[in-house]
Structure formats: C-alpha cells, structure tokens
Amino acid sequence: MKVIFFHRKNIKGNFSIEALFQQIRENLPGDIASRVVEMNWQSKGIVRRLFCGMQTLFSQGEINHITGDIHFVSLFLPGRNTILTLHDIGFLENRKGLSAYLLKWFWVQWPVRHCAVITTISETSKNEIVKYVPEAGSKIQVIYNPISDLFIASPHKFNPTNPIILLIGTKPNKNIERQLQAVSEIPCVLYILGKLTPHQRQLIDRYQIKFKVFTNLSTEEVAGLYKECDIVSFVSTLEGFGLPIVEANAVGRVVVTGNVSSMPEVAGGSAHLVNPFEVDSIRAGIRKVMEDGAYRDQLIAKGYENARRFNARLLAGEYASLYRKIKDRNNPPHTS
Fold it and tell me: Which of 112, 167, 254, 275 is least crowded, fewest Cβ atoms below 10 Å from its Cβ?
C-alpha cells in the first residue's frame, strides 16, 4: 500500500507537524510505503492556494493523508481515500467577518465533510470540530501525537530552593504573562523557549526575574533543556494537545499545567493542575511541587507511565490500521 503524506511548504522555525509525521512514517509496518509531497507554494492568497491544490491533484496516491494546516487541498482529492488531520481549530478564535467565514468553510466545514476520515489529536479537539460540523462525529478518530525518542529518562537532583523552571512557548495562549507574575515571588531561574515580546521583557525586568531565552533549537537541544530544568510550567489557556507535558513526563520532570482544554486529558494524572486564568493558582501549584517532595516524586512516577501512551510505534500502528481500513473499504473482495 502506498500512502502520500501532504505537507505545507516548509518555513524556517515552523516544523512541528512535519516532525511528528516523520516519526509516524519511520515506525509504519513494512507493508506500507510512504512518500512526502511538500507544497511548492506557501498557503497565502487565492492564486498560490490554487497552485497547491493542483499540485495535490497530480500527486495523489492509493491513500492520501493531509497532515495539517493546508486543509483546503483536500477538496482537490477524492474524498473516499483521503484522510485529513486537524490538530486543532484555535485559528478560528477571535475571527470575525468574511475572514472567519472563509476559514470556517474552506478549512473546516467543507474539508471535514469531504474526507473519508478525520483524525485529530485529542478528545478536546474532536469536540471542537463537532461544534462546527455536528454530523462528522462518526468519521473523527482521535490519534495522539507521538513523542520523540530523544526524550528519555534522565534522573536529576531537584533544587527546592532555587529551581530552574522551563516555560515552553510565548504565543498568547501560552499564558506567559500570568506565569511571570506567578513566579515573581518565588526564587527561581526561568528558561524560556521562544521569542519574547517587548511587553514580556518589560514584565521580566519589572519583576526582576532571572532568566535565559532560547530560540531556534533542534529537538535534541530542546530535550537538553528538559534535562537541565527542575519544573516544567506549561500553563496554557488553550491547547489542542500539549506535547511538552508528555516530553517532561518522559524525561522525568515534574509538570504544572492548566486544568482546561486538552491538558488534563494529555497529562492523565501525571501533572499538577492549576487554573491558568488565576495567578494565585499558578503560584500555589509551583510552590506545591517545590515544597512537597513525596507528591513531586509521585507525579514523576506517574509521568513515566503516562509517556508510554505516546510511543511512536504504537501510534504508527493506529495510523496503519486506519490506512488498511480505508483501502479495504474502497476495494471490497469480489464474490462469485
């Protein structure tokens, strides 16, 4: 069986989807061959998107898998053997007018109705999709994101008096501003992965927080940050999945995360949950894992167990079963 993976055009610093599906391809069973088709054009403007659609049309295979972002190209493929992965639909948040209508129709409603199967990365994301396309619930399958083999157990002596706290991401949903305020009264060093805005830098200066910023790191270098830190604070306000929770689990670092969206589902009891909209709740959560060693060790032990759910070989097997199911559906056995 031949599966074609359709990827958006590669842009520097924007490769998370591609890295995830590289792991899936590397762990597919031997009877499934695969090929990647990367778009020649960035998804901007009508003309370039039409070119992307035509490229897709002339590159199709036995099974077509659109891996995310360029959802609209599914409309150029036969729905019966096309899979679309919708990671989340947070891009519809705060959109209004014609822009919101076009995004909703061409990136969600029409592609979801057209494709044979929709995969998504959490039950939370599935529920969000169903809000926009209620009749599609039966064709949506949840398959979690895999974790890289680079994230492995790395025992570490916890520093309870001046811990290194790792913050991942600086976009609005990552809730950096509240987390900065929360740690302003806690002796610590922040490791921040992502480019800071001028406002975020002003807050760091105001609160006199010790910090280091890291950008454009390889996956191996990111894994190194987890190994150096004591706590991973991933207190987002919205997440389609939340892979840093699992990455921290696998390395053996205690996690503080939000009690909303997909984060409790992904954590599976392996993290301390806080209200991401309340600074006092975030601060109390960080202090809890700093001061209660037994509780911290319990969460770390649960984290190792939780990380097993996101093994790339296991999840590649789920995709392989899905590909075979679609092939069999389209090629029923002949009866005499």
Answer: 275
